[in-house]
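A reminder from the course coordinator: this example appears on the midterm review sheet, so study it carefully.

Given structure:
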């Protein structure tokens, strides 16, 4: 596979990798970390590339839309993955076929808002939005966006509204796309979208991350002319409804992955520049508003999932050798990536979802012969350092003399003496 931006976009159907994670109640990370393995699980009923995957409140995963063939024929169908049975089953279909950068956002009421995307080929985007109701297994129409868009991103704000930012609103069946600078808010109470502040720089294919302070970080992406890759970043403030500049990334990145870490920083990894898929990564510190370099990946993995132990699983993608099955773990304590088990199937643009049981469902994407229906599970193994207690484990620290030692931390053992 030729490693350049245009070819990668052809394979992805111009899909942008939009990974943004809210911090969960995480188990503390040990300095030694853990590794894991992938194993096959039930396949989807339909091959899908450019679909969305959303973890529902009941623990099942809603997979909707996508393209089911190499000609980018969009589908309206949707299905549910049940971790208890390891199987997918059909659920109600969307009112519109959607692939390539539509957004899917879990609302506080348990429903899922799906908006935008393309209906076929590279024509104009779908202007409509709809709601999936897990109680009925059906989609219903809701208010349409002000600006139809694809290759955008959305995030749920603390006030319960959904922020939709940037993207492309039209390409008239040709490339490049026409970029959107505007952003809008979806109000679940009224079922309508309303305009909010615009980006300083119109962009698509960026990373959007909700920060602990309630602001949203927009980083990187593509701007006009369309091969211009951005290092700049902006913050959206819900209190004022405006965007403001923040520190720029150390490297321009199109379609990077972004993961909110338990310490409040944001890991931005991978992405593309013309002629190269990136293996580098960096951290955004909301306190200082700056990015700094961190450890690099061994290969250009693209999906990123925050695990329950605080590590980040990156998997799949493509480089000069072709589509990748490799996976790595980022350890925030050490600031490094290390190899973990490879996927059973090489995948470009895979859907990765953290399940309630701590495993990661990796489904669909683009394989060597086209869109994939197969899926697999990633499971952490036992800690690589066996000398650990049940809770926080042994942390490797250094004394004043620089000699490392093991600290038991919060691990306390009570022994019944019978007294």
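Designed residues:
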């Amino acid at each position: 596979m030729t490693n350049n931006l245009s070819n990668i976009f052809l394979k992805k159907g111009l899909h942008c990798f939009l990974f943004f994670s809210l911090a969960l109640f995480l188990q503390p990370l040990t300095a030694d970390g853990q590794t894991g393995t992938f194993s096959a699980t039930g396949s989807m009923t339909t091959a899908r590339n450019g679909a969305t995957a959303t973890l529902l409140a009941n623990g099942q995963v809603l997979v909707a839309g996508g393209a089911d063939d190499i000609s980018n024929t969009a589908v309206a169908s949707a299905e549910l993955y049940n971790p208890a049975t390891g199987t997918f089953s059909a659920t109600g279909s969307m009112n519109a076929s959607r692939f390539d950068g539509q957004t899917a956002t879990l609302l506080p009421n348990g429903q899922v808002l799906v908006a935008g995307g393309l209906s076929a080929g590279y024509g104009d985007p779908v202007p409509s939005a709809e709601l999936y109701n897990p109680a009925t297994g059906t989609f219903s129409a809701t208010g349409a966006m002000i600006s139809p868009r694809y290759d955008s991103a959305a995030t749920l704000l603390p006030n319960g509204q959904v922020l939709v930012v940037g993207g492309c609103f039209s390409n008239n069946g040709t490339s490049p796309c026409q970029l959107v600078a505007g952003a809008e808010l979806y109000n679940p109470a009224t079922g309508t979208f309303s305009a909010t502040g615009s980006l300083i720089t119109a962009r698509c294919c960026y990373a959007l991350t909700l920060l602990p302070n309630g602001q949203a970080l927009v980083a990187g992406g593509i701007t006009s002319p369309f091969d211009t890759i951005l290092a700049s970043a902006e913050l959206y403030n819900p209190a004022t409804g405006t965007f403001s500049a923040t520190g720029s990334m150390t490297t321009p990145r199109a379609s990077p992955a972004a993961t909110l870490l338990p310490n409040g920083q944001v890991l931005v990894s991978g992405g593309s520049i013309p002629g190269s898929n990136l293996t580098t990564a960096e951290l955004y510190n909301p306190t200082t508003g700056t990015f700094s370099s961190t450890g690099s990946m061994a290969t250009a993995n693209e999906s990123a999932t925050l695990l329950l132990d605080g590590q980040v699983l990156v998997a799949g993608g493509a480089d000069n050798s072709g589509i990748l099955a490799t996976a790595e773990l980022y350890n925030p304590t050490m600031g490094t990536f290390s190899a973990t088990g490879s996927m059973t199937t090489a995948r470009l643009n895979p859907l990765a979802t953290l399940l309630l049981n701590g495993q990661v469902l990796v489904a669909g994407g683009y394989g060597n012969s086209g869109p994939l229906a197969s899926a697999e599970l990633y499971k952490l193994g036992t800690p690589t350092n066996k000398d650990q207690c049940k809770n926080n484990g042994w942390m490797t620290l250094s004394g004043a003399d620089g000699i490392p030692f093991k600290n038991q931390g919060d691990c306390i053992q009570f022994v019944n003496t019978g007294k």
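The two ends are 71 Å apart (CA to CA). Residues 1-28, 384-419 have pLDDT under 50 and may be disordered.
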